[in-house]
């Protein structure tokens, strides 16, 4: 998963900081740099599992950084009955899907773009969703990008590691947006 912090992302993040500095937006550049540093530190950390609270913080840092570049809106919500501090999930589980939502979904929509992330308890299952209001894509068509392929491979790997649980990935996409659902069966 360390490969998800790819050179393209690093270049975009540093370009974003440089752009803010060139526009003399020093406060925003400092905020961006601080979030970038924390995100990088957490991505490079060797933890296999992190709390939902930590995952939420990572996603929040990432989305705030990208929000400075693109101007979209986002929300991260969760069921009230989830204990975010004590429920752990594999590290960086949703980040590739969130990155795709930004990059391919709403980056061109500016302030009209919207991303919603939810953590929901459904009986003993944990349902995680990433929804955007972008243009969508044909889920049947083979895409050239590595992001979805790496994510599907990671889900298969997680299913081989956590044999008592099941990770199920479902992607729905239409012209009004994309919804990625990841369900962790019997996780709670």
Question: Which secondary structure elements does this structure contain, and how are they paired or packed?
Answer:
Blueprint: H1 7-22, H2 26-44, E1 49-51, H3 52-70, E2 73-78, E3 88-90, H4 95-106, E4 114-122, E5 125-132, H5 147-161, E6 166-174, E7 177-185
Parallel strand pairs: 2-4
Antiparallel strand pairs: 1-3, 4-5, 5-7, 6-7
Helix pairs in contact: 1-2, 2-3, 3-4
Shape: globular
The rounded distance between the terminal residues' Cα atoms is 24 Å
Helicity, as a percent range: 40-55%
Tell me the number of helical segments per DSSP (H or I, 4 or more residues long): 5
> What percent strand?
25-35%
Derived structural class: alpha+beta
Sheet with the most strands, sense and barrel status: 5 strands, mixed
Radius of gyration from the alpha-carbon trace, in angstroms: 16 Å
Spatially, the strands of the biggest sheet line up as 2-4-5-7-6
User: Runs with pLDDT <50, length 5+?
Assistant: none
Order of helices and strands: HHEHEEHEEHEE
Rounded average pLDDT: 87
Tally the beta strands.
Answer: 7
């Amino acid at each position: 998963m360390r490969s998800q912090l790819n050179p393209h992302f690093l270049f975009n993040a540093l370009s974003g900081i440089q752009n803010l500095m060139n526009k003399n937006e020093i406060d925003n550049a400092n905020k961006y740099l601080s979030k970038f540093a924390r995100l990088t530190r957490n991505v490079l950390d060797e933890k296999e599992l992190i709390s939902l609270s930590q995952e939420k913080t990572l996603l929040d840092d990432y989305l705030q950084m990208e929000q400075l570049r693109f101007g979209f809106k986002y929300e991260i919500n969760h069921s009230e009955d989830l204990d975010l501090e004590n429920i752990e999930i594999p590290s960086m589980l949703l980040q590739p899907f969130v990155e795709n939502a930004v990059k391919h979904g709403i980056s061109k929509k500016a302030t009209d773009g919207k991303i919603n992330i939810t953590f929901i308890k459904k009986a003993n299952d944990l349902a995680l969703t990433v929804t955007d209001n972008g243009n969508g894509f044909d889920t049947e068509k083979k895409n050239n990008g590595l992001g979805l392929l790496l994510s599907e491979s990671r889900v298969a790997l997680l299913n081989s590691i956590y044999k008592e649980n099941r990770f199920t990935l479902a992607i729905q996409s239409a012209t009004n947006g994309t919804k990625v659902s990841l369900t962790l069966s019997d996780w709670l």
